[in-house]
Design goal:
Order of helices and strands: HEHEEEEHHEHHEHEHEHEHHE
Strand order of the largest sheet: 8-7-6-9-10-11
Oligomer: single chain
Structural class: alpha/beta
Number of strands: 11
Mean pLDDT: 85
Length: 317
C-alpha cells in the first residue's frame, strides 16, 4: 500500500511540475496569436501554363515574413507564380497581394529545402523542376528577396491602416510631450524565450552595455533625440536600461501594434530575433544591430553566415 501511495505522489508531483513549467512559459513568451486571422482569398486560377511556387510556414511572425518574402523573390528569379497554400498570421498585419490555393488541388510538386539556416543558397536562383515547387525551411537571408525589395516594402509589407491607427495614439502622446524637431528612435528589446530556452543553440539576448552604446550613438548625432522602448520584458527594461527623461516605455499588449509603432520611428535599435529584424528592414533610417549574436562557438554561430543575414548598410555594435 505504501509503495502504491508513493507512486501516486510521484506521479502527482510530476504533473504539478509540468503544469508550473507550462504556466511560466506562457507568462514569459510573447503571444503572437492575439487576433483572429482573416484571410483575403484570391483563388489561383488552375489550368494556366505557368508553374506555381509556394512555401511552408515555420515559427512566428518574423520567421514567416522571411519565408513569404523569400517566396516572392525566388518566384521572380524562376519566372514562377507565387501562391499560398497555408494559413499565415501575416494576414493580421498586411493585406498580402497574393493568390491562395489548397494543397489537395495543387497536384504534384517538387520540394526544395534549404540546407543551412541563415545562409544564402544559389540553387534557389535556378530551380530545375517540371512541376510546381514547394519551398521549405526558414530561408533567412535578405539575398533571397533583394530583387523584389521595393515591391515588398510598397505592396506586400504595407502595414494595415487599422494597425497604424491603433499605434498612432501611443506615438502622438509622446509627441505632445517633446519638441517638434525631436528625432524618434525605436528600441526593440527582445528577451522572454530567448533568455530562458535557447542558449545551447546560440540564441542570446543583447547585453545591457549594448543598449547604452546604441543609444549614445544617436545622442552624439542628434541634439534632440527621443527613445521609444518596445519589449516583451518591459519590467526588465525599466530596471536595467536607460531611464532618462527622453526615454519612453510603451506597452501595448499586442505585438502587431508594437510593430506598427516601430514602423513610425525615424531610426531603430534592434536586439535579437526576426521580428525586430523586419522592423529594421522596413525602416528608412539608420538601423543598429547587436553583432554579438549568435553566441560564439554554438551551432548557430558555426552554421549561419552573418553577411547573408544582416543587410550591408546596418551598423553593428
Amino acid at each position: 500500500m505504501r509503495v502504491v501511495q508513493l507512486r501516486k505522489f510521484k506521479g502527482f508531483r510530476r504533473v504539478f511540475v509540468i503544469v508550473i513549467i507550462c504556466l511560466v512559459a506562457l507568462a514569459t513568451m510573447r503571444k503572437f496569436s492575439t487576433r483572429n486571422i482573416t484571410v483575403q482569398k484570391n483563388p489561383v486560377p488552375y489550368g494556366r501554363n505557368e508553374r506555381k511556387i509556394t512555401v511552408g510556414f515555420h515559427g512566428r511572425a518574423g520567421n514567416q515574413m522571411f519565408q513569404y518574402a523569400s517566396l516572392i523573390g525566388i518566384a521572380k528569379m524562376n519566372n514562377m507564380t507565387p501562391v499560398l497554400l497555408e494559413i499565415t498570421e501575416l494576414w493580421n498585419m498586411f493585406d498580402l497581394p497574393i493568390s491562395t490555393a489548397y494543397m489537395d488541388k495543387s497536384g504534384k510538386y517538387t520540394e526544395v529545402k534549404e540546407e543551412h539556416t541563415a545562409v544564402y543558397a544559389p540553387k534557389f536562383e535556378n530551380i530545375k523542376s517540371t512541376t510546381d515547387v514547394y519551398l521549405n525551411r526558414y530561408l533567412q537571408s535578405w539575398k533571397y528577396f533583394e530583387n523584389v525589395k521595393m515591391d515588398l516594402k510598397q505592396r506586400h509589407y504595407k502595414i494595415k491602416n487599422a494597425l497604424l491607427e491603433e499605434a498612432s495614439p501611443y506615438v502622438q502622446d509622446i509627441k505632445r510631450k517633446v519638441s517638434k524637431e525631436a528625432v524618434f528612435v525605436g528600441v526593440h528589446v527582445r528577451r522572454g524565450d530567448i533568455v530562458h530556452e535557447r542558449k545551447p543553440v546560440g540564441h542570446i539576448p543583447a547585453p545591457i552595455p549594448y543598449f547604452y552604446r546604441a543609444m549614445n550613438y544617436f545622442r552624439k548625432r542628434y541634439s534632440n533625440v527621443v527613445f521609444v522602448m518596445i519589449s516583451n520584458s518591459m519590467m526588465w527594461c525599466q530596471d536595467h536600461l536607460d531611464d532618462s527623461s527622453n526615454v519612453y516605455h510603451v506597452e501595448t499588449g499586442d505585438p502587431y501594434i508594437d510593430f506598427a509603432i516601430l514602423h513610425k520611428m525615424d531610426h531603430l535599435i534592434l536586439s535579437v530575433g526576426t521580428f525586430g529584424w523586419w522592423a529594421g528592414y522596413l525602416s528608412p533610417g539608420t538601423v543598429i544591430f547587436y553583432k554579438g549574436y549568435p553566441k560564439a562557438n554554438t551551432t548557430m554561430s558555426i552554421e549561419m553566415k552573418q553577411t547573408d543575414f544582416i543587410p550591408r548598410h546596418w551598423v553593428g555594435l
